[in-house]
Design brief:
The structure holds two protein chains of two kinds. By secondary structure, chain A is an alpha/beta fold. Chain A is built from 17 helices and ten strands. Chain A has helices spanning 3-9, 11-19, 25-33, 40-58, 63-75, 80-87, 94-117, 128-134, 152-163, 170-196, 199-224, 249-257, 284-299, 333-349, 367-383, 443-449, 454-463; strands spanning 231-233, 241-246, 265-269, 273-277, 308-312, 316-320, 354-359, 387-391, 402-409, 427-433. In chain A, α14 (333-349) links the parallel β6 (316-320) and β7. In chain B, the strands form four sheets. Chain B has a nine-stranded mixed beta sheet with strand order 5-6-4-2-8-1-9-17-18, with helices on both faces. Chain B starts with a helix and ends with a helix. Classes of the chains: A alpha/beta, B alpha/beta.
Amino acid sequence: MNFARYCERIDGLSYLAGKMELTGSRVRRYLMQMPFSTDRDLLETHFDILQKAFEIISDQKTKPVLMQLEHLFSRVHDIQGTLVALKEKRILDEVELFEIKYFAALCSDAEKLCRQAGFSYENMYPLQEVFHILDPDNTGTVSFYLYDSYSKTLALVRRQVAEIDPDRDPTGWNQLQDIIQKEELAVREKLSLQLSALYPALQENFDRMARMEIWFAKAKLALLYNMVRPVTVPGDQSGVLSLDGMVNPAIADHLENAGGTFQPVSVTLCAEPCLLTGANMSGKTVVLKTLALIQALTQFSFFVPAQKASIPLVKDVFLVIGDKQDQYRGLSSFAAEMLDLDRIMANMNAGTKMLVLADEPARTTNPAEGAAILCALVEYLEKHSVMSLISTHYGDLGLSCRKLRVAGFQGNQVQGRLDPLRMNRYMNYSLIEDKGGSVPLEALNIARLLGVDGSFIDTAKKYLK
Amino acid sequence: MPFTDQIIRYGSLSVVGLGKNTGKTECLRYVMEKLNQRQKAIAVTSIGIDGEGVDRVTATPKPEIFLEKGMYFTTVASYYTSKRFKAEICEVLPYTTVLGKMVTARALEKGKMILAGPSDTSLLQKWVREMPQRYPIDVCLVDGAISRLSPASPAVTECMILAVGAAYSLNMRILAQKTRFVFDTIHLPLAGESLRSKLENITHGIRGITARGDITDPGVESALLPAQVREVLGKCGNRIYIPGAVSNALLKTLGEGKEAGSTELYIRDFSRIFAEPRVFYSFLDKGGRIFQLFSTRLLAVCVNPFSPQGYRMNSEELVNSIHKEVNVPVYDIKRMEG
């Protein structure tokens, strides 16, 4: 699956994609088509490249070169259509021939700038041959026309036509013009054929140019959000995912705009299910979303928003938030969630290595059956050793799996009515290992602090067993 | 030619016509010839997409632009590739228009072709600004489109020539009046220095100006409907700044207001006025005043006594009747060429 599909699933990912400084749809197209990689060696190579790009953009000395390089990226035109024409051996027109020459000149400039900056990846294939073909007079300029030196006939007829005044002898002038047109077509055909032999190198350079820009955009993103290079954990099933001080950039930005700060959270996960409990508004969903984001970022060769990250690679990431309704297909949120879980089961049965992050599964049905569904899910995940984190409000399920709890709400600090936007000031979002089986009962307390009608809350308390 | 020196000094010129076939292209050709004689390097383009070989409205042939060796020109790629003279492509522009990619090229021999350049004012502005930076160019010329005055905005070119022709109207009095109207809008008084600097960076919405010269924002985005105009006047008082289009309805409402006589309207430049002459003068007659932030240099009015239907006006009479109305030189381009 490619980056675009993951952006649909993980909203934090499309947020970061939007924050990347890319010069246009040409490059964005490449970004969206990037594959989700499970190849550790490849990812490590990618991280080496990104590391280098990161060092270059962090270094004040290379700034002028980098600015030139960025300016160069903005000058690359989208010539994919022309490249396809070359591949299919179609005859290019003058403007397309110019575009090829211009692109070749940019490639050689990019190569020089990269060398100056010390960036030795995505090297350009030398396109000297393009200049031999499109600069027959060795002028060294990027401008282009169908030079006289391409054809003796062309040169001769052009000289003849220059002697004729089209107003006095329109017939003679038109006849010669027709010969010129025919000859120019023949020249373009010859040039196009010669260039089509260079199609692979041109296409490769075109791809590399976009990738190079993406590396620098990724590096800038890493600088912007204090991201680190993740350590990928080698192959087998027993790898441990470990994140110190992870941050969700989209939510952090939002909080910052509202005058708050994002409290970094640390977490470890092994190849087994783990339950996540915590009061309402304690950030359980954010933990799940951020884990999904960081796993995806790693496997799309990005640095990740954490202080330290160690990530085992998986074939797929499932983030089941449970608020998905598909009214058009007649699905309730419960039905959509069940179908998501079914897809996860199918992948488990097929032995796919994955990361499953489920937010309060089966919460929208009756608690008795809901709890049963949850227990079954945990049992399945346990049986297949799937690295997973499942948030829930169901307590005393009698499950023996590992449990994490959000440290929680320091409600005693609150004075007066609580503004939901300021909730994070009184919340400790750290995750702690929980040995017991119960869940925190803070719902009524939080409702009271939010200013919900007091007698209503007292009535609710009557029903509390 | 008296205005050639001025064109060279200002560096960019637009030729706009009161309508189609007013002799705009002949006028441009004439200017290019003069500049060429003075060995000035020229870049030329045309605004908009009225680039058919034959004028769709009157079915008469649309003149192509004559290019001398060494001239730079910008046009759409599809026109470029069908040219019948030698030229080299210097650049493919980084934006496309409805007609496709745009190419800047240099003529390697003389030839002619239809030009269709950038189609909106901001791209044209960029073109005029960037051409002399990229190429050794002395003067940028812009061929205006049918009844569009926008390329003549001082935001785009430094000076302009207005082409007026029999094709617009065969009635000499109507021609002269319309020319007078454009002339009057061009010569609206300039706003004071301090107001100009306060307003020049405001390009959207509407603003009020207090008696002390402070700028207030009524929070109204546009004033196209009479009710909106009255709301703005109610909020801002009688001095308002409108950076966008000054429509007929707007000026009419202002002119019909009780305090029309003490109303002051500030606009960016003459090209923003889209009101009828009757409404424009009626507002001024009531004592209303219009100020502009940027003034336009109108170098001359060129007349074309030929209409596409073959009718010919008396050249001398036409020149004289227009000259009576406007305080700039008036020429019959065809007669001068002859």
